[in-house]
Each structure stands twice: as C-alpha cells, then as structure tokens.
Design brief:
Distance between the termini: 41 Å
Shape: globular
Largest sheet: 4 strands, antiparallel
Strand content: 5-15%
Strand order of the largest sheet: 1-2-4-3
C-alpha cells in the first residue's frame, strides 16, 4: 500500500508540475484549457462522480476528483456555499502568479461544471505566505457576485 501511495503522490506532483509549467505561459492557455477539460472528462466517469443532488453532495463529489479527501477538506457550509481547502502542495506556491493559478484551476471548474456546480478560488497558494488554497463551491446558477476571486486580488511583487 505504501508503494501505491508513493506512486500516486509522485504521479500527482508530476502532473501538477506540468500543469503549472503550462499555466505560467499565458500563450499556451489553449493547451492548458484543453488539457484540464480533458482530465475532467476522464476523471468524472473513472471515479464514478455523479451530478450533485444538493449543495453538500456537490462538495463531496468535487472531493472525489482527488486522490485523497484529506488533501481537499471541506471546512464549512452555509446556505449556498461549500468552503474547502486545497492542501496539496502546489508548484505555484509563493510564486505570486495567481493568473497561472486561475488557469490551472480550470480542472476544478470543469469538474464542477459537469456535476452542476461553480468553483471560485478565494485565496491561492500562489500568493506569497499561503500554504493552501481556500475555495468556494456553489450550485450552477447561484450568484458569485459576493465572492472575490483570488486572481483579481492584487499580489505584491515577489523578489
């Protein structure tokens, strides 16, 4: 079991590294978008992810798209929003490149789109000093106007 977990962890880090490399090159955005959409298209049936029946199940179904729920814990739920964290170490961590983070997180937006939801990164690991991402998940059609996406928040230059 340890070997299997190491292989999964290593594979995930390699995939994240490749996605981060692509995401940091804005001119390759089309490739990044196609790749993340394709991954979502593969993962949804592979993991048996189903359209959500309610808000709580929307968060749970999103969690299932990852190797471990421990890395993406749900930390809150209110009337219209599931709040979660992404603790998987990101290659963009501390880079200040929240635009690349936005492009890379298209995977999550694609997963949620397929199951009836919307996804917003509220705080990114790419922001210096952050060791995890904070995200919000809402059902499709719900307003996102009160959520402030991390890629629209100015980041101080990284030296």
């Amino acid at each position: 079991m340890r070997l299997k977990n190491r292989i999964i962890r290593s594979s995930m880090q390699s995939l994240l590294g490749a996605l981060a490399w692509l995401s940091r090159r804005e001119y390759l955005n089309g490739v990044t978008q196609s790749l993340t959409q394709g991954l979502a298209t593969i993962v949804v049936p592979l993991k048996g992810i189903r359209p959500a029946t309610d808000l709580k199940s929307l968060g749970y179904q999103w969690q299932r798209s990852f190797p471990s729920a421990k890395q993406v814990p749900i930390v809150g739920l209110d009337d219209n929003t599931v709040y979660a964290e992404i603790r998987t170490p990101c290659p963009l961590r501390g880079s200040g490149d929240v635009a690349a983070c936005y492009r890379m997180m298209n995977y999550d937006r694609a997963i949620l789109d397929k199951i009836g939801g919307q996804f917003v990164v509220l705080s990114s690991q790419a922001t210096p000093g952050n060791s995890y991402c904070r995200v919000a998940i809402r059902e499709k059609g719900e307003s996102l106007a009160d959520l402030r996406p991390a890629h629209l928040i100015p980041v101080l230059a990284v030296s």
